[in-house]
Amino acid sequence: MSRNTRLPVFFRKLENVIVQLPMFGSLKTHNAAAHSFSESSVVSGAVAFWRRSLASAPELGPQPKKIGVKIDVFESGSVGGRLETVKMGDYEYEVGGSIIHPLNLHMKHFVDRLGMSPRKDVASKMAIFNGKELIFEESDWFIVNFLRFLWRYGFNLIRMRMWVESVLDKFMRIYQYQQYGYSFSSVEKLMHAMGETMIAEGFSQVFINDLVEPITRVNYGQSVRINGFVGAVSLAGAESGLWAVDGGNKRVCSGLLYHSKSELIPGKVTSIAVKVRPSKTGAASSFYEVNYAGEQGAAHALYDIVIIAAPLHSGLSDISFSGFSPPIPSHYPGRYHQTVATLVHGLLNVSFLGTVEPPSDFRVSDVLTTDTERSINSVSALDPVHIPPGYKPTTASHKKVWKIFSPEPLTEQQLKNMFLSWDSVSETRWLAYPAYSPPRRKTPPFILHNRLYYLNAVEWAASAMEMSAISARNLALLAHHRWHEQSEKIDQEDLHTRLRGEL
């Protein structure tokens, strides 16, 4: 696995300051036609905790009335996890999580809070490729597109839009719950509180094959044999109003890290152990010893609360746990799906797509593929993460940067089939999101131990930047309420009706 796919592990150690708590989660990779990843969102929530020494645990006195929190962030790679950019020529391009939905309120809040701005919008057109020819090519005219869809698919598109909107309407409840300070102890309870919709029925098979599957392939690299909520998240990524951060989405991660006054510790966490020691009063007190390999060699630090924001699956984090009863597994079942993002600065061979349209007239920027095209999931023309003044997209008769999503690295022959010529190629292999093929797995727990939490558990419901932000906010609230024994703020039923009554 590329080290850029590693997610940071977040630990909070007690100091005499209170800060806004950011926690970076996982984000998934998408192209310009689709929704934004899991792949690094953050959340803020003021939390106060008891102080611990870094080197050893002193005998603890009575709990102080006013306490604060300091955040240590352990990261062995670059900040941002699966948000990443690659420079080609004079510009940088998104190679990781690229697009944010207009209803992603946490991401919108982060960008506003940090004084950032959305990237300038660039017009785009979409087409669908079945491995032999383009079965659909978007027109510049809305009415033409509508009539084409109506002729081929009937009212399936309208029904799909209504279904996705019904799922999103329930999804939006989580923001109200979190605003009022409610949290959930498991992914299942969080999804239940949002009124998760799992089933989408009644769509024609032609519609699913031609349109729904290309969208799930570009967003999750997988077919439609995924759970309904993941499908809805994927389809939401094909709606209008999608945006990105000017200069690159990874700026949100570094910006929030700086804004929170967190300390970034370059290093790889190798193990976490629970330690128990008596205090002066005779009562036992527990803490967590975090062992890591840093720039100066092996080291460790002690914490009251630990939040892991890295996938606990084989080959992804390799964090071991000791001293826990019952034992915590180092690896949970399931696997992460590989998507290879290949950036090519070159001249596209439009005949590869089965079109007779001359390159000078070919203005399609996003080509999605059906399941009959097995070698690639999508081909997209990229615009820089910062749009310079006077920038205009060109036709396929000019060299530009294209991003190809594929399940495996592209061969030299595949590149020759797709491009007439190229100047440079960049390949990034992402283990970007879980394999969602049924049967649907039980999600890993949020709570690994008394004060040890696992942010990435939410990826097994759906992987996206905003899902990671929601998970992080939920864990900040959950840790706070469990620390202060505020059970009335955890796993409450029928919140939607109760809060609606209060309003």
From TrEMBL:
Catalytic activity: an S-polyprenyl-L-cysteine + O2 + H2O = a polyprenal + L-cysteine + H2O2; S-(2E,6E)-farnesyl-L-cysteine + O2 + H2O = (2E,6E)-farnesal + L-cysteine + H2O2; [(2E,6E,10E)-geranylgeranyl]-L-cysteine + O2 + H2O = (2E,6E,10E)-geranylgeranial + L-cysteine + H2O2
InterPro entries: FAD/NAD-bd_sf, Prenylcys_lyase, Prenylcysteine_Oxase1
Required cofactor names: FAD
GO molecular function, one term: prenylcysteine oxidase activity
One GO process term, biological-process aspect: prenylcysteine catabolic process
Domain of life: Eukaryota
Keyword Amino-acid biosynthesis in record: no
One GO cellular component, as annotated: lysosome
Keyword tRNA-binding annotated: no
Ranges where the Prenylcysteine lyase domain occurs: 136-492
Cellular location(s): Lysosome
Top-level enzyme category: oxidoreductase
Keywords: FAD, Flavoprotein, Glycoprotein, Lysosome, Oxidoreductase, Signal
EC number assigned by the record: 1.8.3.5
A Pfam family: Prenylcys_lyase
UniProt similarity note: Belongs to the prenylcysteine oxidase family.
Described function: Prenylcysteine oxidase that cleaves the thioether bond of prenyl-L-cysteines, such as farnesylcysteine and geranylgeranylcysteine. Only active against free prenylcysteines and not prenylcysteine residues within prenylated proteins or peptides. Involved in the final step in the degradation of prenylated proteins, by degrading prenylcysteines after the protein has been degraded.
Protein name, per record: Prenylcysteine oxidase 1
Originating species: Mugilogobius chulae (yellowstripe goby)
